[in-house]
Amino acid sequence: MPLTLFEKIWNRHVVVEEEGELLLHVDRAFFHEGSSHAFAKLEQQGRTIARPKQVFAFNDHYVPTTGRDKGVNGIVNGEIRNMVIQLQTNAERHGITLFGIDDPRQGILHIVPPEQGITQPGLLICGADSHTSTHGAFGTLAFGIGASDMMHVMATQTIWQRAQKTLRIRVDGTLGFGVSPKDVILAIIAKIGVAGGTGHVIEYAGSTFRNMSMEGRMTVCNMSIEAGARAGMIAPDETTYAYMHGRPYAPKGAQWDAAMALWKRLPSDDGARFDREVTMNAADIAPMVTWGTNPEQGGPITGVVPNPRDLRDEITAQETASAIEYQGLTPGMALADIQVDKVFIGSCTNARIEDVRAVAEVAKLGRAVIPAWVVPGSQLVKRQAEQEGLDKILIAANFEWREPGCSLCTAINGDQLQPGERCASTSNRNFKGRQGTGGRTHLVSPAMAAAAALKGRLTDVRELMRGS
Predict the structure, then answer these.
(1) Tens digits of residue pLDDT in 380-439
(2) Are 422 and 329 members of one domain?
(3) pLDDT tens-digit profile of 273-309?
(4) CB 56, CB 30: distance < 8 Å
């Protein structure tokens, strides 16, 4: 019987079934400073971590992105400083690997594991963060879990789950000039909605995804959660293997050959059945921007803010009106006329070297006229960008070059918008107050964010690039 990528990984990890739930073996567990509750529960029950070498910790959500030269002692906020220290203590006590604040590999927990080769095709990965779906770009089944489930994973290296349905989203064709993977996933969410993937694991298929770099694939899988899905996946291929080869945790020698033999059997079989299918044409996708307060509320930069009166569905009309009011917009106004106060380029969605390069290409065309932060996703990304001279390009163009971390995406580390401030952001969520109480967020690609920084408003990056 032909099987999907999801079914192949799922079936290999089933330990036992009981009353409609399946106990699954977990290959990797990831968490950050905010996971202290899982450790507390572990200790309350007198348990230890079953397989410490399969558990990895990261300083990313709470660490500041400035003043890092003093390490932990340089963290001004005492509560955050204690969280960082507590993670160090827990990691040492339980013998797990910590990519800490002073580690030259430090960074976001959805960026460091792929860099290190910890993320590998065919694995089942659980993380203490919803965007663990990012790792599905490598042909893994990866999803976020809460503190209770994480405690269970640490203690047993297993997790109870119910079966998921499958949704294949196929996009074929070549992306147009100025269109990026971020635009692809925003266009998908605009089409299927924030609940479009609920109860499903999404497999992204088609020539558009096959032609993407691993960085682009990670951006797409990262935002599967914003479509309501449990996880997002892309079948491994030669692009995957080339990215992974030689990385510190990747298999070596004969183990690499054995792993490749397994990985090449993972892609969905011809004739495999999906519960749902959605198709799109890459040529129809333009640079995207969200105007509302959820990722579904967006459209091409050439569009306008919708009028709730034009919507037939009463609930949708009410949600649209509420979003427009919060965002301080007017129905019918051109998206390209929306003025912004700040630009944030970073997060687990768009803080990889490919993203920094895209920003630098746009930054060469002028100078930022509003505060614009570029926050690399890891120390490795930061060093590579600096080796390529990208930091100098950005600084010369009046962009601020910061230290790695989640920064303004989470707004729990000292980086946040002030009430009423409007931000063009490469992060993944534009909910009310997501980037700070009263803050207004517009999700865009890295190049679109850079264009907004140069113009002080949401801008079609294609106009800038063609002009150059």
Answers:
(1) 999 999 999 999 999 999 999 999 999 999 999 989 999 999 999 999 999 999 999 999
(2) yes
(3) 999 999 999 999 999 999 999 999 999 999 999 999 9
(4) yes
Q: Using DSSP bridges, classify how beta strands 124-127 and 28-31 pair: parallel, antiparallel or unpaired.
A: parallel
> Tokens in use for 18?
């009981």
Is the pTM value of this prediction over 0.90?
yes
Which residue, among 347, 414, 339, has the nearest Cα to 374 in the 3D structure?
A: 347
Residue among 118, 134, 122 nearest 267 (CA): 122
Residues 128 and 216 in one domain: yes
pLDDT tens digits, 18-58:
988 999 999 999 999 998 899 999 999 999 999 999 999 99
Q: Which two tokens stand for residue 330?
A: 């007017």
Range of the domain at 136: 1-167+207-270
Quote the CA–CA distance of 123 and 258 in Å, as a whole number: 15
Going by C-alpha positions, the residue among 336, 347, 330, 310 that lies closest to residue 425 is 347
Closest CA to 37 of 192, 152, 158: 152
Q: How many domains does the chain have?
A: 2
**Average pLDDT over every residue of 206-224:** 98
Which pair of tokens denotes residue 348? 């687990």
Question: Does some domain include residue 7?
Answer: yes
- Quick check: helix, strand or coil at residue 421? coil
State phi, psi for 207 to the nearest 5 degrees: -65, -30
Residue type at 101 in one-letter notation = I
Q: Is residue 179 part of a domain?
A: no
| pLDDT for the residue 19 | 87
DSSP notation for 264-285: TT-SPPTT---SEEEEEEGGG-
Are residues 328 and 456 part of one domain? yes
How far apart are alpha carbons 109 and 119 in whole angstroms? 11
